[in-house]
Design a protein that fits this description.
Order of helices and strands: EEEHEEHHEEHEEHHEHEHHH
CATH architecture: Alpha-Beta Complex
Strand order of the largest sheet: 1-2-3-4-6-8-11
Distance between the termini: 45 Å
CATH topology: 2-enoyl-CoA Hydratase, Chain A, domain 1
Length: 232
């Protein structure tokens, strides 16, 4: 699928538009594990803002073998607690912006999606995972971190209820088929980006106002819970 125009920046998130299909594609590629660093979060937020501004569906994808391994541990585990808190807050803001976006957001999961990367999947409207040997899940407890309240709210609203305890308190991570059963993914395919772009192109033809209003109503409970956390 050709990109008619693209952001010329060489940062870790490349944003391209497909004029023929009316979609925007954001590719996360930091050359490593696609950690949610400040530049990565800023890049995805810019893609969300562009999609909302232009009224186009957004596809978020990673590089081969990795979607995102979560928040940048060099920052989260460092001595700068203010910097870590700011990064965490920026990530939470990103998730809310995707959840509240009045346009379709489709995730193409190209590989490992852990912790904050799994939350990125939970914020998207539809998630297509690559078929293959990689892991998806909220592994925070297993590395000594309690799940933050916003993550618990997202998991509660988006995961299958019978798997909520194992996915959160037990920090279960699993292969793509398990991720589908638990609710991190909706389907798998050998070429998730192609399927995601094809779906996004079909969603671009939906009446914008009707989609936006319905998404707002479907996500109302989650938005309410996240907003309540901000007021605490």
């Amino acid at each position: 699928m050709s990109r008619a125009s693209a952001d010329p920046s060489t940062g870790p998130v490349r944003v391209g538009t497909d004029e023929a299909d009316g979609i925007i594609v954001a590719v996360i590629d930091d050359g490593k594990v696609n950690a949610l660093s400040g530049p990565v979060i800023d890049g995805i937020r810019s893609a969300v803002a562009l999609a909302v501004e232009q009224g186009r569906p957004l596809v978020i994808t990673g590089r081969d073998g990795c979607f995102s391994a979560g928040f940048d541990l060099a920052v989260m585990g460092g001595d700068d607690r203010h910097g870590a808190s700011a990064l965490f807050a920026d990530g939470a803001r990103l998730y809310r912006e995707i959840i509240e976006a009045p346009v379709p957001v489709v995730a193409s999961c190209t590989g490992h999606a852990l912790a904050g990367g799994a939350l990125l999947l939970l914020s998207a409207d539809h998630r297509i995972g690559r078929s293959g040997p990689y892991r998806v899940g909220l592994n925070e407890v297993s590395i000594g971190m309690a799940l933050p309240n916003f993550a618990v709210a997202m998991a509660t609203h988006r995961l299958e209820r019978r798997f909520l305890t194992s996915a959160t308190m037990f920090a279960e991570v699993g292969p793509p088929d398990r991720a589908v059963a638990m609710g991190f993914l909706d389907e798998t395919d050998d070429d998730p980006l192609h399927v995601a772009c094809r779906l996004a192109a079909s969603l671009a033809r939906l009446p914008h106002g009707a989609f936006a209003a319905t998404k707002r109503r479907i996500r109302r409970g989650l938005q309410h819970d996240l907003a309540a956390l901000d007021r605490r």
